[in-house]
Amino acid sequence: MSSRGAGQGDSIPEGFTLSMALLDCLPVAFFCVGAGYLALRFDSALFRVGEALVVLAGALKVCWKLVLALARRDLRFLNRQLRYLMPVGFAMALVSLVVDRERWSPASVMAHVAAMPSLLFLIAGLAGMFLMGWFARHLDGRDAKANWREQMVNAISQLCIMLAIVL
Asked: H/E element holding 45?
């Protein structure tokens, strides 16, 4: 099926359903909780803006899947923005650790993440993120089966990272 007009793309990927779009909401929600928890403890505007960009990128990708599923239109900019907004957001958050270094303690962060069960959740979450990196290089993001795998791993990984942060 083709979608024409305003550079919206040339084909609708098959198999992108409402349930897939809703599953895609979970990692964004888990990230929001974890990032929000960190933002309350780390008083850095740069960190908060960076995390907001990451959340925005995730929310726009969810919107892309919702539009695919409900309107059967491929608004590719909703998907493609992820490769720009997310890295910029994470870069800003990392830079904030240096710029605002007097506002956080590496020793207290290490003590928190090394404590059980946070350490187990962090290891599981990071393993999932490495798997997501492998998926990004080897799977077709417009293939529904591959997308289901990616989103299941992403949801579980983000849940684990959120638990590592809030426990």
From this structure: helix 45-71
Question: What's the rounded Cα separation, in Å, for the pair 36 and 33?
Answer: 5
Q: How does DSSP assign 81-124, residue by residue?
A: THHHHHHHHHHHHHHHHHHTGGG--HHHHHHHHHSTTHHHHHHH
Q: What are phi and psi of 134, to 5 degrees?
A: -65, -45
Contact in structure between 128 and 153 (CB atoms under 8 Å): yes
Query: How many C-alpha atoms does 162 have within 13 Å on its Cβ side?
Result: 17
Residue 45 token pair:
């505007």
Helix axes 106-114, 118-138, angle to 10 degrees: 90
Q: Which two tokens stand for residue 144?
A: 């529904």
Q: From first to last of its 167 residues, what are the pLDDT tens digits of the chain?
A: 334 334 445 577 777 889 988 998 999 999 999 999 999 999 999 999 999 999 999 999 999 989 988 998 888 899 899 899 999 999 999 999 999 989 888 888 889 889 999 999 999 999 999 999 999 899 887 788 888 999 999 999 999 999 999 99
Judge if the upstream peptide bond of residue 13 is cis by omega within 30 degrees of 0.
Answer: no
End-to-end CA distance of the chain: give it in Å, rounded. Answer: 47
